[in-house]
Design goal:
12-stranded mixed β-sheet, 328 residues, GTP 3',8'-cyclase activity, Elp3/MiaA/NifB-like_rSAM, MoaA_twitch, TIM Barrel, GTP binding
Length: 328
């Protein structure tokens, strides 16, 4: 098993397959986008499959595909078919913005993809355009409908932003009445890909919870799964449920069971970590499987206790790294 220096078993890999995205959400990147990685700078599918196979052999049980937007990268479904073939991998899930996803839903179901996280910060088309700088609201809602019709578990990820979409909190909660979805409200983070100063958090998970309770005082706490990043609730009689993710407050870090592999092949043991283990360089320098495993184990033996410690260990940056390059 892959165990860090704090005794935590690592079973979950978030694999970012590309830094590119077809939306320009202001909280993730500047309007003009970021300096995209060249094709050579990205891990190839073959390199990703080799690393995933190694990591599954070391105890990884679940892999979540992220980006950027995964379906921007060509031949994504072919890669998922190969990933499904890794012996010992129990669970593959996916995070997507939904713009290009609908046509792939039947095959996702056929491959056994049981859960999809859908990024959707608002149910208002005009606000969607304001946040994402793209007119793709209808495409995302079509994807949501198609996922539900194919009985794929859907978690809707909504970043809560002061002055932008707080009026959408209760309408998103209302989705859980008739739809079997989990709506998760995420604290805004400073990973916007530019030098825009991040002035702290106006809506933390506590304020979001109190806002929901104001409209639904009968909100019930659910039991959180081991390693869960969300505090989970349900309104009695509703088909779906609600989650709160303290991504900026980082109150869930103590039980973290996940690591990240960026599009350029950096293994990150924490979202707030500066840099990471350069597995791409090791791969391309001819490292053996045993050498790769030893490098990963050594890296895990120097893991920060939590996101606050990881941030303190990092260097000072005037430009915040975009979530697209870290892996959303």
């Amino acid at each position: 098993m892959l165990i860090d220096n704090h005794g935590r078993e690592i079973t979950y890999l978030r694999l970012a397959v590309t830094d590119r995205c077809n939306l320009r959400c202001f909280y993730c990147m500047p309007e003009e986008g970021i300096d995209w990685l060249s094709r050579e700078a990205l891990l190839s599918y073959e390199e990703m499959l080799r690393l995933c196979t190694l990591l599954v052999g070391m105890g990884i049980q679940k892999i979540r595909i992220t980006g950027g937007e995964p379906f921007v990268r060509k031949e994504m479904m072919g890669f998922l078919r190969q990933l499904r073939g890794i012996n010992g991998l129990k669970d593959i899930s996916l995070t997507t913005n939904g713009v290009l996803t609908a046509s792939h839903v039947p095959e996702l179901k056929e491959l056994g993809i049981k859960a999809v996280n859908l990024s959707l910060d608002t149910l208002d088309a005009a606000r969607f355009f304001s946040i994402t700088r793209r007119d793709e609201f209808a495409a995302v809602m079509h994807t949501l409908d198609k996922l539900l019709k194919h009985d794929i578990d859907v978690k809707i990820n909504a970043v809560v932003m002061d002055g932008r979409n707080t009026q959408d909190i209760l309408p998103l909660v209302a989705l859980t009445k008739e739809l079997p979805v989990s709506v998760r409200f995420i604290e805004e983070m400073p990973f916007n890909g530019d030098s825009h100063e991040y002035n702290g958090l106006a809506w933390d998970y506590v304020r979001i919870l109190e806002h929901i309770k104001g409209a639904h005082p009968n909100l019930e706490k659910l039991k959180d799964a081991a390693g869960s990043t969300s505090y989970n609730y349900q309104i009695p009689g509703h088909r779906g449920d609600i989650g709160l993710i303290a991504a900026y407050s980082r109150t869930f870090c103590g039980s973290c069971n996940r690591i990240r592999l960026t599009p350029q092949g950096e293994l990150k043991t924490c979202l707030y970590q500066s840099g990471g283990l350069d597995l791409r360089q090791l791969l391309r320098n001819g490292a053996s499987d045993d050498e790769l495993k030893q490098a990963i184990i050594t890296n895990m033996n120097h893991r920060a206790l939590d996101g606050h410690e990881a941030e303190q260990q990092g260097n000072s940056h005037t430009v915040h790294e975009s979530m697209a390059t870290i892996g959303g």
